[in-house]
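Schema walk-through. Below, the input block comes first and the output block second. Nothing else is stored per chain. Lengths vary across the set, and this one has 281 residues.
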Amino acid sequence: MTREKLKWGSGLLAIALLFLLSWGLGGHTHAATVEYSSTTSGVTFQSFLNNSVSDGDTVVLTEDVHLTTYVTVSGGKSITITSKLDTDGTPLYTIYGSGSSRMFQVGSTTAGSSGSLTLEDITLDGNGSTGINVSYSGSSLTIGDGATITNCSGGNGPGVNLAVSGTKFVLDGGTITNNTSTTSGGGVYAITGSTVTIKDGTISDNHAATSGGGVYANASDVSIEGGAIFKNTTDGYGAGVCLLGSAGTYTMSGGIIGSTDTTMIPGNTAGTNGGGLYLGA
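--- output ---
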């Protein structure tokens, strides 16, 4: 082989290696764990999520976050938000709502894109705001171990609101508690064509003026596999769970609707019918 051919081959190899390196670092997304503090980053939480967080990343809070407007997770991103933990494993930090708008929007009708949000070991304190709207088809929300949504108030689903068809919610170890709806679905509200799966965790001490103190679902697919739904109230129908519409499905293979220490159905209180569970057309 001539010296010229060797030089040509070495040059091609160097170019190929450079391309692969740049593709791995910039063009290809690798899941990472990134820490957020407005003090050190100097940017808002929304700006940080937009510019410093990639699909599959986990965001660890290193201080409390006080929202002034809602935060959107979209652009096809799937992210996890968690808090730095104390030595005993309890979350150290909380995300506080502004008291006047929702806290999170998953998926964006404006951008025309879906999103996926998982919360673990973090508290969302609404401070009177509404909690999380899942608002674009194909978007999903998971409330995992150690995550809590509390102190939210508003119309339909101040805790969790599946606002459009084709959205999904999974409760897998988290807690939805002490939220108040002026209409339906104090803890969780699911619109026609959405999906709710309760694997583990608790939905408790929520109130809805009209129906579904804990969970309200209209022509949606609801599956209860575990967890507990208790001490929820409504002035109307279905304090624990209110299921309406003939187009949806309802299955319960585990879990408890009622007291956490019995398989009976006390523990939820309705002003009209269906203290534990109400099924209607």
